[in-house]
Amino acid sequence: MTPLLLALALVTQSTDIEREAAAGILRQIDSLEARLKPTENAQRLASRNDPARDRVLARVATAWNSELQGVSDWIGHHPEVGWHEFQAVDTLTTLLRSYGFQIDTVAGMQTAFVARWTSPGGANGPTLGLIAEYDALRGTQGDFHGDQHNAQSPVAFAAARALKEYMMEARAPGRIIVYGTPAEEVDPPAKAILWKAGVFKGADILVRSHSSVETRRDRPGFGVCCLNIDAVKYTFTGRPAHQLTAWNGRNALEAAVQLYSAVDHLRSTWRPDHRVQGVIPEGGIAPNVVPDHTVVDYFIRFPDEVYLEHIARMMTDAAKGAAQMTETDVEITRYGEYRDGITISALEELFFAYAKKFGAPGLQE
């Protein structure tokens, strides 16, 4: 297989704060990218005559068309939200076992798995890690696959199967590891838990695909997808009372509503590229009882971590103010953190060069 030069050619996020803080590093990175020329190298590799590579790619297409597109469709019609993807995991791990992979459940998560295969040529070679996702979105009319996670595992499996067949025939040393990662759409972030548990140790590279309506490469650097996210719950505790003597209670729902309203008023003071959305999943039990327990759940998003923390502090102050004015107590729990990915320019350019070479639809230069 063609060796890949992995260059971390990064350009930082578009905010002034982050650019200023990282100015010295950015100069070094720009110099490195200029020397490595990832676009030119990718085009050269993609255009080179390589029969072994072409056979692997043909096998990927065969695996997808003969079996794995059907698996994608099946998962798409049987959506399961994060941490509950039991049917999907059973289907996927059964398929991997049929390919000769050894399966382990990992990190104490029922729907996380690692599938390993070692070449008959030995393990003393590259270890390719493939990320598989399979969770669905939560919707008002039921769970659904609106972010194409039903396709991500089958795409990874097509690559794993094709590479395995090539490595067996060529007796090329190395390993293939498929990482089943649940709950991408909800917090706490499963991949962070897996990383902290050491699950990804030993992989030389991790590759994750994502379906889209267009084929493009992300710009180098941070901020390739979904903004940095803090997932925060604000739990208000008051005192119950009957509706006829409501003055004897302390209304936790009123505190939640005050917080929700305060956040809406604060939006005009935040930079326009913030994304802050919340719900009140717990708002009381009965209309004739003053609610003594409520929960407000927010996803707080912003491109750079410095300003994200600024927004989070303002929301903390708003929650404390809501509690003070209603004589309730508030507990603030940051239960999840997502930080934006980093684009590896060499891989992005190589992917895009192959996409163009093999006629991928919806190309966006």
What CATH architecture of the largest domain would you give? Answer: 3-Layer(aba) Sandwich
Mean of residue pLDDT values: 90
Give a quick account of the main beta sheet: strands, pairing sense, barrel closure.
5 strands, mixed
Radius of gyration: 24 Å
Distance between the termini: 27 Å
Would you identify the regions where 5 or more consecutive residues have pLDDT less than 50? Answer: 1-14
Shape: globular
CATH class of the largest domain: Alpha Beta
User: What sequence of helices (H) and strands (E) makes up the elements?
Assistant: HHHHHEEEHEHEEEHEEHEEH
Tell me the domain tally.
2
Strand order, main sheet: write it out. 1-2-4-3-5
Task: List how many beta strands DSSP finds.
Answer: 11
Defining key terms:
Alpha-Beta Plaits; 11 strands; 10 helices; disordered N terminus; alpha+beta; 2 domains; 365 residues; 4-stranded antiparallel β-sheet; Aminopeptidase; 18% strand; 5-stranded mixed β-sheet; globular
